[in-house]
Amino acid sequence: MRIVMLPYLAHGHVLPFYELAKKLSNKGFHIYFCSTPICLEPIRKNHVDVDVHHHHIQLVDLQLPSSFHQQLPPHYHSTKNLPPHLKNTLLAAFDATKPLFSDILKNLRPELVIYDLFQPWAPEAAHEQNIEAVLFLTSVQAQRMNFDVPKETESNKKNLDYLFKNSVNGMTFTHRFFKSITSSSHMILIKSSTEIQAKYHNSNLSSDVFGDIVPVGPLVQRPQDHDGDEKIMDWLSKKEASSVVFVSFGSENFLSEEEMEEMANGLELSNVDFIWVVRFHGENNVKSIHEALPLGFLERIQGKGLIVDWAPQAKILAHKSSGGFVSHCGWSSTLEAMMYGVPIIAIPMQLDQPYNAKLAEEMGVGIVVPRKEKKFTRHEVAKVIKTVMVEEQGKEVRRRAKELSESLNKKEDEEFDVAVEKLLHLVQESKNSVAASKET
Fold first, then answer.
1. Which of 11, 54, 77, 116 is catalytic?
2. Any idea where the Glycosyltransferase N-terminal domain is (predicted)?
3. Which residues of the chain have pLDDT under 50?
4. For residue 383, what are the contacts with CB-CB under 8 A and spacing of at least 6?
5. Which residue, 81, 48, 140, is CA-closest to 332?
6. Is 201 a catalytic residue?
7. Looking at 13, 56, 77, 319, which residue is catalytic?
8. In the annotation, is 13 catalytic?
9. pLDDT at 140
10. Pairing mode of beta strands 171-172, 167-168
11. pLDDT in the model for residue 396
C-alpha cells in the first residue's frame, strides 16, 4: 500500500510526520515523503536509515514555484529562520504547489494521502483523483481550537492574532484548519496517546462531527548517534544519576537578551549541573556566546555546566544522568520528556506551548515557572529547578514522570496497531466502494 505524506513546512511538523512514516514503513507500507528540499535536508543528512533500514520510504522533493524564488530563495522554503515578513509569502507559495502536488499523485498513484493542518488544497487534490486523504495533527492542542491560551508573552499574542486575523489567498489560519478537518476521510490521526487524550474528553473537536479521533502514539524520536555528540555524552556520563538538567527551547524559539541573562543566572543560582542549548535567530547579530551571556558566566560554570549550540535531545533525555528538562513545551519536546520519564520545568513561549505546559502540570509530570508581568525571573527559574531536581517537594513529580513513562511505553505499539488497522479498513472500504460503483 502506497501512502503520500505532506507535512507543513516547519521543523516541528516535518519530524513527527517522518517518525510516523518510519513506523508505517515498518508495517510494510511504502511511503512517499513529500516536502521542500530544505525541509528534507536534515532527514537526508541525519537519518542515514532512510536507505538502510527504511527502504520503504522515498523522499520526494516538492519545489515551490519559481515565480516566488526572488522573494523566497530556497533556504527560506521552511519556517526555520524565516524572517517574519516572509511568512505570508511562504504560505502563498505552498498553496501554489497544488498543481505540482496533483501531478505527483498522478505519477505515484497512492492509495492514501496523509496531510497537515494548514493545506486544505492537499485533500482536495487527493479527492479529485479518488484518493482517500487523512489529516494528521502533530499537536494535541490543535483539537481544542478555543484558543483561551494564557497571554503570557507578547510574542504569543502576536502569533494568535496571526492565526485569527491574517489572511493568505482569502483564508485565515483558523479557516484553513477547519477546512482541513472537514476534508479528512472519516478520521483524524493525532500525535498523542489514549492516556493523554483522556484529559481532553470534553474537547470541542467532536468525533460526531469530524469522525474518529485516532491516537497514533507519541512518535518520539529514538536516541541516535550523530557526528559531534561525543563530547556532550562523555560529559553527561560522568555525572550522577538524575543530576543534570537539560535546557532547550526548540529550533524556532529564541530568548531575548533579558531572558538569556535571567536564564543564565537562574541556572547558576540553582547550583544544579546543566546542559544548555543556546541558539540565536538567523538574523541575530550576536557575535559570540561570550557576548550573549553574563560577564564571567562561562568561567564560573566550568565543570558545572555545558553550553552548546546543538544537542542530541532524545539521547540526552534518555540518559540516566538526566533528571530535569527546562523546556518551551513544544508538543514533541513535551512528549519526549514524558516518554523518557524526565520531569519538565516549563517555560512556554507561544502558540500551543502554554497549553502543553499546563497539561504537563495537570498530569503531575512538570511545574510551570511563574512569570511576573509576563516575565520569568532568575529566582523563579532556580526555585523550580531545585524543586524538580533535588527537593522533597518535587518527589511526587519525579515519581509521576517515571510512572507515566512506563505506561506510555507499554501502550505505544498497541495504540499504533489500532491506528494501522483503521487506516487499512478505510482504504479497503474505499476500494470496495469504487468496485461497486464500477459494477453499477
1. 116
2. 3-183
3. 49-53, 145-153, 202, 204, 284
4. none
5. 140
6. no
7. 13
8. yes
9. 67
10. antiparallel
11. 94
